[in-house]
C-alpha cells in the first residue's frame, strides 16, 4: 500500500485552520527567540562558518577520526560497537540487555533510535522501554512518533496532554496546568529512573581526541538515566564525531541558540569512562551515512547537529506539521536526509518546499539545504520516482517553451480560454482555483503590445 | 548601453503593464532597450520540478535571443536567479556564460548599474513590500532576517524616492508567500495557507497595495485577495517607480 505523501497529509493537517495558526505561531515564536539571541553575538556568522568548516574537515577525514575515537574510548574503558544498519544496531542493544538479564530500559532522546525504530523492535522482544524526555514520553503515551527533533510533542496542545496524563498517569480530568502535568511526569519518571538497570542515551558530540561523548539535554534526563543504571548504552550516528574538545565550544554556542533560543542547554554532560562496577557501551551506526558521504551533492547534510532551526523557520513545516513528513527527522533537513534512506518512500519530501532558502540561512553549520532539495528533485526524477503524468506534462511544457511559435500559440490559447471560456479552468479540477482566483486576462500580451507600439521588433 | 528586456512568460501573458513600466523606466535612464521577440521562458518551471534535463531547448532559445547585448534585464527575481545559476548551452557555452553573468533583476539593475538617485514618481497610497525569497535570499536584494548582518534593501531605497508613498512595517518581513512554482498546485493546502497568512499581515497594517519584484508571488496573493473580495490590490514595483498609476 502506498503511504500518503506529504501533500495529502498536509491537506488533512490544514483542515483545522486554527490549529495550523497555533502550530505556526508557536514555532515562529521559537524562530524569533533564536533570532534575538543569535543577533546578540557579534561573531555569529563567523561561528557558523567555523562550525561548518570543522564539520567539513571531519567528514573528509571521518575514517581516521572514528578510529581515533574508538582507540581513546576503549582506553577509557568504554566498549565500542559498530553497526552497519538499523537492524544491527537494534540487535546489539537487545543482546546487551539479554546478556545482563535486563527487560526494562529507560531511554533519553535519540533521533537515531527513532530512525532505527528501536522501540518497536525491543517491544517485540519483550523489552519494556520508557522514554524519559518529557516530550518523547508524551508522544510515547499517545502512541505517536515525535513530530519535531527537539520538540517531539510540539503538535500537541496542553489540553491534549492533560487528557493523556489523566488517562495514563491519573492527573485530575480537565486539568492542563503545565506545572501540575510536569510534576506528575516527574514523579512517574523518578520511579522509572530508580528501577531501570539499563539506560540508553543519544549522543550530541563524540570527541576523537579524548574518546568522550557529550550529551545535551534541558531536563537532565539523560544524566538521571545514565547515572542510576548499571549499563549505559549510547547510540550515535558516525557523523557525530568532532576532532577536538576545543571544537566543542563552537558547537555548544550554536546548538541551543539555534534550537530554542537559549544560550546553552541546561545540561551539557561529558561521559568519558564508566564508574566502578558499571559499563558504558557506544554503538557507532552507519545506516546509510557512508552512502550519503559518497554523494557529493548531499554529503554536507551529514554536518547536521540536529538543532531543528530549519524546522522552526520553515513556512511549510510550520503549516504542515512534522507528521506530514512521515520520517523520523521532519522538515527541510529530514527532506534531504530521507531520500538517502529510501528514494521511493521519500520521493515526495524534496518537493515539500518552496525553495525559499530560509533553512539554509538559519542552519548553524551552513548546510545548503534548499539547494540540496533542488538537487534531490533532479535525482528523483532521473531515477524514475515521479508521477508519469507529471513527466508527460513536463515534456509538453519543455517542448512548448523551447519553441517561440508554440509558446505564442499556447499563450494566446490560454488567454482566450480564460477570457471566453473560464469554466474550462475555473473548476474543482484546477488546484489553483480551489481557493484562488485566476489572474485577469489583459487586452494583449506584452509581446503583442510591443509589436503594435514599438518599431524595432 | 544596449539592454535586452527579458519578460518572463507569465508576465508577458498576464501582466504586460509591468513589462511596459520596466521598458519605460529603463528608457528614462538612458538605456537603448530591445525586446527580442522570440524569447519564451527561463526554464525554471521544468528545473524546479526536477526536470532540469529537459530545459536544454528552452536554454538554447534563451541564448539565441539574448546574445549580443550588454545587459539583460527582467522584472523578476526568480527567473533571473534561475538564469544566473542554471543557464547553460552546449552549442554556445561562452555566450551562455556571458548572459548568465549579465542578467539582472530590474531593481538591482537600477540601483547597482544605473545607480539611480532620483525618481519622478508619486504614489499616494499605503504600501506593503513583499520580499520575494529568490529576490531577497537568492539575489540579495535586501538583507534577510535569518542573518546577523547589516540591514539594507535595494527595493526600499528606490521606493523611498517615490513621493507621497507610505510604506508599512510587516510583522514577518520576509516570510515566503507560498507560491513556489508547481508547489502552488502540488501542495495546494499549504501554499494557500501561506498566501493567506502573508496577505493577512499586509491587511493588518492597513495597506492599499502589496508590491514586490516578483509577479509570481503577487499573482498568487492577488488570487487569494480576489477570492476574499478584498479591496487590497497588488502592483509590480516597476509600475510604482515608473509613475504608471496616478
TrEMBL record, chain A:
Classification via InterPro entries: 4Fe4S_Fe-S-bd (IPR017896), 4Fe4S_Fe_S_CS (IPR017900), FTHF_cligase-like_sf (IPR024185), Helical_ferredxn (IPR009051), LUD_dom (IPR003741), LutB/LldF (IPR004452), LutB_C (IPR024569), NagB/RpiA_transferase-like (IPR037171)
The chain positions of domain 4Fe-4S ferredoxin-type read 294-324
Q: What is this protein called?
A: Lactate utilization protein
Which organism was this protein described from?
Answer: Pedobacter cryophilus
The alphabetized UniProt keywords are: 4Fe-4S, Electron transport, Iron, Iron-sulfur, Metal-binding, Repeat, Transport
Question: Could you mention a single GO BP entry for this protein?
Answer: lactate metabolic process
Q: Which GO terms describe its molecular function?
A: 4 iron, 4 sulfur cluster binding; metal ion binding
Q: Which domain of life is it from?
A: Bacteria
Record flagged with keyword Transferase: no
UniProtKB/TrEMBL annotation, chain B:
Cellular component per GO? Answer: cytosol
| One MF term in the entry's GO annotations | oxidoreductase activity
Q: Name one Pfam family in it.
A: CCG
What InterPro entries does UniProt report for this protein, alphabetically? Cys_rich_dom (IPR004017)
Report domain Cysteine-rich positions: 3-83, 127-221
Protein name from the UniProt record: (Fe-S)-binding protein
Amino acid at each position: 500500500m502506498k503511504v500518503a505523501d506529504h501533500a495529502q497529509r498536509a491537506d488533512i493537517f490544514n483542515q483545522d485552520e486554527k490549529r495550523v495558526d497555533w502550530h505556526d505561531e508557536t514555532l515562529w515564536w521559537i524562530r524569533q527567540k533564536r533570532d534575538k539571541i543569535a543577533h546578540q553575538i557579534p561573531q555569529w556568522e563567523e561561528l557558523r562558518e567555523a562550525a561548518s568548516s570543522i564539520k567539513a574537515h571531519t567528514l573528509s577525514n571521518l575514517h581516521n577520526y572514528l578510529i581515533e575515537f574508538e582507540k581513546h574510548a576503549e582506553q577509557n574503558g568504554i566498549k565500542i560497537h559498530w553497526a552497519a544498519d538499523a537492524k544491527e544496531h537494534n540487535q546489539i542493544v537487545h543482546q546487551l540487555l539479554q546478556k545482563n538479564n535486563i527487560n526494562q530500559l529507560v531511554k533519553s532522546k535519540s533521533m537515531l533510535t527513532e530512525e532505527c525504530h528501536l522501540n518497536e523492535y525491543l517491544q517485540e522482544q519483550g523489552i519494556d522501554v520508557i522514554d524519559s524526555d518529557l516530550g518523547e514520553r508524551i508522544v510515547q503515551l499517545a502512541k505517536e512518533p515525535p513530530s519535531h527533533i527537539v520538540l517531539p510533542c510540539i503538535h500537541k496542545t496542553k489540553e491534549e496532554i492533560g487528557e493523556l496524563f489523566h488517562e495514563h498517569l491519573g492527573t485530575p480530568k480537565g486539568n492542563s496546568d503545565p506545572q501540575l502535568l510536569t510534576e506528575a511526569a516527574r514523579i512517574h519518571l523518578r520511579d522509572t529512573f530508580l528501577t531501570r538497570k539499563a539506560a540508553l542515551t543519544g549522543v550530541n558530540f563524540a570527541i576523537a581526541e579524548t574518546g568522550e561523548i557529550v550529551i545535551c539535554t534541558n531536563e537532565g534526563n539523560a544524566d538521571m538515566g545514565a547515572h542510576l543504571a548499571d549499563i549505559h548504552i549510547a547510540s550515535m550516528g558516525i557523523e557525530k564525531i568532532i576532532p577536538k574538545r576545543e571544537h566543542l565550544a563552537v558547537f555548544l554556542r550554536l546548538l541551543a541558540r539555534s534550537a530554542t533560543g537559549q544560550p546553552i542547554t541546561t545540561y551539557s554532560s561529558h561521559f568519558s569512562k564508566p564508574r566502578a562496577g558499571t559499563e558504558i557501551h557506544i554503538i557507532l551506526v552507519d545506516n546509510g551515512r557512508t552512502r550519503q558521504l559518497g554523494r557529493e551533492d548531499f554529503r554536507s547534510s551529514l554536518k547536521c547537529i540536529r538543532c531543528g532551526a530549519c524546522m522552526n523557520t520553515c513556512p511549510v513545516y510550520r503549516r504542515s506539521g512534522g507528521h506530514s513528513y512521515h520520517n523520523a527527522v521532519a522538515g527541510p533537513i529530514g527532506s534531504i536526509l530521507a531520500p538517502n534512506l529510501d528514494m521511493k518512500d521519500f520521493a515526495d519530501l524534496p518537493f515539500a518546499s518552496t525553495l525559499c532558502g530560509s533553512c539554509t540561512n538559519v542552519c548553524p553549520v551552513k548546510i545548503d539545504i534548499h539547494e540540496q532539495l533542488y538537487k534531490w528533485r533532479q535525482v528523483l526524477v532521473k531515477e524514475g520516482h515521479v508521477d508519469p503524468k507529471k513527466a508527460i506534462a513536463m515534456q509538453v511544457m519543455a517542448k512548448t517553451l523551447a519553441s517561440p511559435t508554440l509558446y505564442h500559440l499556447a499563450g494566446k490559447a490560454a488567454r482566450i480560454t480564460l477570457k471566453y471560456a473560464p469554466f474550462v479552468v475555473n473548476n474543482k479540477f484546477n488546484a489553483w482555483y480551489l481557493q484562488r482566483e485566476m489572474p485577469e486576462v489583459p487586452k494583449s500580451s506584452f509581446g503583442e503590445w510591443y509589436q503594435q507600439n514599438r518599431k524595432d521588433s | 548601453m544596449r539592454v535586452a528586456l527579458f519578460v518572463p512568460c507569465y508576465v508577458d501573458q498576464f501582466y504586460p503593464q509591468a513589462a511596459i513600466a520596466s521598458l519605460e523606466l529603463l528608457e528614462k535612464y538612458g538605456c537603448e532597450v530591445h525586446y527580442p521577440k522570440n524569447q519564451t521562458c527561463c526554464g525554471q518551471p521544468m528545473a524546479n520540478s526536477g526536470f532540469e534535463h529537459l530545459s536544454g531547448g528552452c536554454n538554447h532559445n534563451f541564448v539565441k535571443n539574448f546574445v549580443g547585448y550588454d545587459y539583460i534585464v527582467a522584472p523578476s527575481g526568480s527567473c533571473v536567479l534561475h538564469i544566473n545559476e542554471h543557464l547553460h548551452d552546449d552549442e554556445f557555452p561562452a555566450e551562455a556564460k556571458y548572459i548568465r553573468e549579465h542578467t539582472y533583476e530590474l531593481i538591482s539593475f537600477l540601483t547597482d548599474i544605473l545607480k539611480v538617485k532620483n525618481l519622478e514618481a508619486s504614489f499616494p497610497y499605503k504600501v506593503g513590500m513583499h520580499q520575494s525569497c529568490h529576490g531577497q535570499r537568492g539575489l540579495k536584494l535586501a538583507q534577510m532576517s535569518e542573518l546577523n548582518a547589516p540591514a539594507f534593501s535595494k527595493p526600499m531605497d528606490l521606493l523611498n524616492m517615490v513621493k507621497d508613498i507610505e510604506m508599512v512595517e510587516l510583522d514577518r518581513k520576509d516570510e515566503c508567500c507560498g507560491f513556489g512554482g508547481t508547489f502552488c498546485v502540488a501542495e495546494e493546502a499549504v501554499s494557500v495557507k501561506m498566501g493567506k497568512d502573508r496577505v493577512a499581515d499586509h491587511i493588518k497594517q492597513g495597506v492599499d497595495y502589496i508590491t514586490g519584484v516578483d509577479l509570481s508571488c503577487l499573482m498568487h496573493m492577488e488570487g487569494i485577495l480576489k477570492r476574499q473580495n478584498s479591496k487590497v490590490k497588488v502592483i509590480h514595483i516597476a509600475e510604482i517607480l515608473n509613475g504608471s498609476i496616478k
